[in-house]
């Protein structure tokens, strides 16, 4: 027979363990961003604040869907999205909590959103990638709408299934209207635009000589160039204000159902401060969302002038974009 | 009347249908088996004998009827004792030995609920009885057909069941082996003082092994009796023909005598008018036909089969023909004129042997002509 | 009394319940697929169903299926004929080579074909040859045909071997030439084997997502994947899944009418008869050339491509992930194999020992799990688990369960073979000796099934290791198997990173092929 006294010690141990586990602050992050990009920052955050972070990695869309389907039971406190569309979907589902005003105080107007349910952490500029060995850069179009011209027939690659592209289309709908957007999509398709699964494939295709131009995000090229000075692809920016220069954003949102609201806010604030922003700029090759960070090609100042004038809330409406892509037989 | 008081097994009115349109596969079958008795159910393929046996084992359910073993009801419309609780051993046609176990392990398989040493003892004892002790470590596929059969028997005997059921146990053996194995099995059963029901289509097998035989045709037990009774005094044409070669004649009976194709002949029971009689070929003999005794009942030898130890003659009569079985001293040859003389009374067969009427007694009784229930 | 007897005729509950459970598990989620689909916005659903693009998708899917069926016939028939009807030397080796392409799953083959061409592909870097990267219809056709033709090969070979040669001899005695005999006597008798192989391959093509997505050829499965990937509301994915299922259903019904029932590897009894063997003489060199060419494209080139890309240097981080991946793959596949056996054994037992209309219906469900396009099956499970059993949603258990249902048909073959050989009466013998029904089965029949069970489990395990579409959808977030890694890296054209994972898959696939080959060779 096991005596009561001999049970006491293990019970105490278990109790203490559970208590400590519960008592120590811990937040759960669902991250659509890559482990390599996120882990170093998170470690730094934990060291600075003592808050324990548990991260679940996955695809942005997948995680957003999971959060929506998990509902109030979701263990996630924070959602770190690779792009605005996913955050918009969560916002529409009334899942995100309104952030305190001071969080976005330091951000330029292009990176704020009136609803304030999520905040941008880094920028990803849309560019036109081109084969620098075979294309004369002076012939490159000034506007993304020019890509429907006959001289680019069959030479342009895009990725309709990619979230960044879908954000870009949403931006085009916001600035140019649905009809013009639909027309552009149709004309691009008629002009032989080649569809790829994702951005990497577009660049590989340019390298392989299948296509000459590609609509993609800037950092792919920057990363490749840093590893290989002879990289054959260069990035071209459209004329100032053209929607083709859209800066898409990665961002953070806090779930309403989170029980660690204070810790979550601390996490978001950390990602907007200098340490994290420098990391995004130097290690991830993305644009910071605040000005005055460091000194490089990728300072925010360098692109603020050419980006289209758009309110980030406008990027919330992904549903209609998807519908349009389905209607134009791109999805 | 049947001594039914302390029989071991009583089956009453067993009936089984597999489909509602066709006639029943087993039709109101009733019989008893005594202690230490070997009972054979004999019949052609498809007559329902195996189904009957499986009903007694519990592998098939009865539609009607009941089964009692040692006074305890095994099966009736409200009861079905499952096979594993009946205490009845079964030897299958293909032996069904467990391929992954040795002979000894096969035999030990049914010995549950006793101590390990006792199991060993009992198994060895049984193996000794069947003469397979030296093979205790072999696997079934290493044994011959006859050896497998004996192991199957031993396996069934080992747990000392109330009785053993055997489904065509010798049919898979070649002809040479069959006879010796039959004798062996009978010896083993008797030595073990075990009752058994044996199902077979081979009449020689049934006659030599069984103490009593039930002849089955199209689902019905047509006659039950000792081997001698069913052989010498068949009740129906079917039984007469199934148990061996026989001569069937129509005759006109006048009491204990009848007039037939071979002349005047005695009968085993009184009858009047047109009857069908059966007389075995070995109960006839031949005599030289002379103008004196050939009064329309003589015949000509058509065929002579000399088999060394005996001779079978085929004789063509005025009406029909007949077979006569004699010892090898008969001097007659093909073409000779002979008369056929009976050595025993002929058996009067029941008139309509294809329709079963419930009142008809199927037990051989000494009452003549009286039906007894 | 009547009901009691009818119940007694049923198989025992411990076999019946698992069998019925399998039947329900395969069909119920499909019902939820319908629920979810009709849940969406009616106007958008209408747009989705009746758009022009669906006709394109249908056309593409059918064209690819037709193309693959034709190509695999041209590949498989010579192999089957050579190894069963001629005196070609090295029969065993050629048979092995004919089965070997199964070691290179479709998406791996697609990956290697993609890595072959282009300005920085293998050919360019090794030989300076620049070819267009294969893509679209022809790329998909090549990748899928080369992977699936062994199924047809095995079926045809079994068919050839099981032929009744006396009919051919009778035809010869009636004066028909060899060619006419082939046409009028031999080929018609091969129809069941042929249809069986066609069915497996056709279902595979319709359900394939790995190869077509890498080749960017738009079939229904690919469209389903796109919808699933990019949309937050999966209703529209559900509609595409339903369309896919309708297509599959039509094919199954058609096949049923043609064949009156499904049979997979096993057709005919495969008794080896001494057939008239054709002497090839000098023609054997033509045969060798053919075999060599196919082996070159289907096996040698992919392996070289993978090794080449591995040699290009791999990011060290990948090795860490590789370890995780192998663990993940095994963690999902091993339990799936055990579960599959747990389902397959009752089904096989019932169909052989208690044959009846009920048992043949139950068997159909096992094959239904195999025939359902994997993406649609996975999607159905997502909806089902969300609505009915939320604690299973996003769990490893659900993935394991889906694997088991999808692959259990593969384990039926070995288990049934083993059951056929177990003497039917030994269980009754055990019962007559006092053992209950279950114990009788457990102690007498079950030990005889061991080799069949192990073979069946091995098939399921290895198939699950290679599996892509179901894994893709049902994996818990962050759970990445080898297959998923190969595919994601290939999709990003990161061929070097994909190579180590592809190599691991190759290892497990080769085991699968070895097992298959050993059983087929022994059978014939």
What does this structure look like?
- The complex is a heterotrimer of chains A (331), B (373) and C (524).
- Chain A has 331 residues and is an alpha/beta fold.
- Chain A folds into 2 domains: 181 residues, D-Maltodextrin-Binding Protein, domain 2; 134 residues, D-Maltodextrin-Binding Protein, domain 2 (3-Layer(aba) Sandwich).
- Chain A contains 12 helices and 9 strands.
- In chain A, strands 1, 2, 3, 4, 5, 6, 7, 8 and 9 form a 9-stranded mixed sheet that branches.
- Chain A starts with a helix and ends with a helix.
- With 373 residues, chain B is of the alpha+beta class.
- Helices cover 21% and strands 35% of the residues of chain B.
- Chain B contains 8 helices and 19 strands.
- A 6-stranded mixed sheet of chain B has the order 7-8-9-3-10-11, with helices on both faces. In chain B, strands 2-1-4-5-6 form a 5-stranded antiparallel sheet, with helices on one face.
- In chain B, a hairpin with a 2-residue loop joins strand 12 and strand 13.
- In chain B, helix 3 packs across helix 4.
- With 524 residues, chain C is an all-alpha fold.
- Helix content of chain C is 77%, strand content 0%.
- Chain C is built from 25 helices and no strands.
- Chain C is globular, with a radius of gyration of 24 Å.
- Classes of the chains: A alpha/beta (331), B alpha+beta (373), C mainly alpha (524).
- Chains A and C meet through helix 3, helix 7 and helix 12 of A and helix 3, helix 4 and helix 13 of C.
